[in-house]
Design brief:
The complex is a heterodimer.
Chain A (H helix, E strand, L loop, with lengths): L12 E5 L3 H13 L3 E5 L2 H11 L4 E4 L8 H9 L8 E6 L4 H10 L3 E4 L4 H10 L5
Parallel strand pairs in A: 1-2, 1-3, 3-4, 4-5
Helix pairs in contact in A: 2-3
Chain B lengths: L4 H15 L8 H14 L5 H10 L5 H10 L10 H17 L5 E6 L6 H13 L7 E8 L2 H9 L1 E2 L1 H5 L4 H7 E4 L2 E4 L1 H4 L3 E4 L12 E6 L8 H13 L1 E9 L12 E6 L2 E6 L2
Parallel strand pairs in B: 1-2, 1-7, 2-6, 7-8
Antiparallel strand pairs in B: 3-5, 4-5, 9-10
The chains are: A alpha/beta, B alpha/beta.
Chain lengths: ~130, ~270
């Protein structure tokens, strides 16, 4: 995806979806440093409500295992809404089996990051998402 | 105990002699960080002790390990991204038109390190140019370090390494899970021939290359060696070939027989006829 450029008037919006406050805080900081306007949600259902409230987001990082609605269900639900087709969805999860990566992509996720991750991992994945590689 | 100037001089002499690499004074921190693991596995109490040992016994196998550790570069899949975009959008399509009759392409990735760059090129070719599988493709990747070449041939990467820059769709398509690691599928590994090459010495008897990647390695050489390498790379290339350097490198003021071509966000060089 196109990362924000310094000095642009509208900052792109990101939603960090994770039931761990610590993980949300780490990803929030990384994305805020990249000039995103960052919002948070604790599960998939909260995330869908937040996206409706905001009128859409440019990027969402999505944990897999969360209460109420998990990350895969969230991706599937969001991808049924054509108005959010342009939202870049990056799974950020402790799941590392090939089957999980495949299922996430099939459901409509753009990228997959395995925890633990570093700032550079997130940055590289955002650069590569939608690059045509 | 940090290394002193005489111990650093031993290291400067070693990498200069074995790899023609210039290690500037002030890079002591690099020696400490790269050589601490080597010292530990060799049973040395410090990097200083390791360097004194290789100085006292120039035939020790530790010499090779010290040189290897100092010449290994950090790398990642799709590093800097733009060169691979240039390859996909412009260079490969153009070369496929130019070579439509002979249906043959020769590629060389120099200083392959742990292999992410040549495998990025290989996966880009498989993903976007499947018709090349009917072509005669000679794809060599070289490095000075035998241990790195062995790693390259294995094509196994840690979770952290596949997390860095590798598109998830490539992970699913071109890798198998191997325990806690990820291994490139055999048909990807078999595309590339990994060869030990010291860039400061004559290159092997290869065909003329259509594409050469030599990114982020010339910076380690003296101006004279750099000039010599660039001159020999020119001779190793087809006249309409493409040459990639690292983002902070240039042929300017080193060897003027290159034309710089700007392809979107990346600079590529072509030999002057």
């Amino acid at each position: 995806m196109n990362l924000p450029e310094q000095g642009t008037t509208r900052r792109p919006r990101a939603l960090v979806i994770d039931d761990s406050r610590a993980v949300r805080s780490i990803i929030r900081q990384i994305l805020a440093d990249l000039s995103f306007e960052v919002h948070e949600a604790e599960d998939g259902q909260q995330a869908l409500a937040k996206i409706d409230e905001l009128g859409g987001v440019d990027l969402a990082t999505v944990d897999w295992n969360m209460p109420v609605m998990n990350g895969l269900q969230f991706v599937e639900a969001l991808r049924t809404k054509p108005e959010h087709a342009g939202t870049c969805l990056v799974m950020v999860t402790t799941e590392t089996d090939m089957d999980y990566v495949r299922r996430a992509l099939e459901a409509g996720a753009d990228e997959f990051v395995m925890k633990p991750f570093t700032r550079d991992v997130i940055l590289d994945k955002l650069n590569i998402a939608g690059s045509g590689a | 105990m940090p290394i002193d100037s005489s111990e650093f001089a031993i290291l400067q002499g070693l990498v200069s002699k074995h790899a023609a690499i210039v290690l500037d004074t002030g890079k002591e921190y690099l020696a400490e960080s790269r050589l601490t693991p080597v010292a530990r596995t060799a049973g040395c109490a410090s990097v200083a002790e390791l360097l004194r040992r290789v100085h006292d016994d120039p035939r020790s196998p530790l010499v090779g390990r010290v040189v290897e550790a100092m010449t290994t570069n950090e790398t990642s899949f799709f590093r800097d991204m733009h060169p691979f975009e240039a390859l996909r959008t412009t260079i490969i399509p153009e070369l496929m038109r130019a070579r439509a009759n002979e249906r043959s392409l020769n590629l060389w990735c120099a200083a392959a390190s742990s292999g992410q760059e040549p495998y990025t090129v290989a996966m880009t070719l498989l993903e976007h140019f499947p018709q090349l599988q009917q072509w005669k493709l000679r794809f060599v990747a070289s490095d000075i370090a035998p241990a790195m070449l062995a790693r390259c041939r294995e094509g196994r990467y840690s979770q952290l390494e596949v997390n860095r820059g590798l598109p998830a769709k490539y992970l699913v398509k071109y890798f198998d899970k191997a325990g806690a690691e990820w291994q490139l599928k055999p048909h990807v590994r078999s595309m590339i021939e990994f060869v030990e090459v010291n860039l400061a010495r004559p290159f092997p008897a290869w065909p003329q290359m259509d594409i050469v990647f030599m990114r982020n390695v010339l910076i380690y050489f003296s101006l004279e060696t750099k000039r010599d390498i660039l001159r020999r790379v020119r001779k190793q290339m087809r006249p309409d070939g493409w040459f990639f350097l690292g983002g902070s490198e240039s042929t300017l003021n080193v060897d003027d027989k290159w034309t710089r071509v700007q392809l979107d966000k990346t600079s590529v060089y072509r030999p002057v006829p």
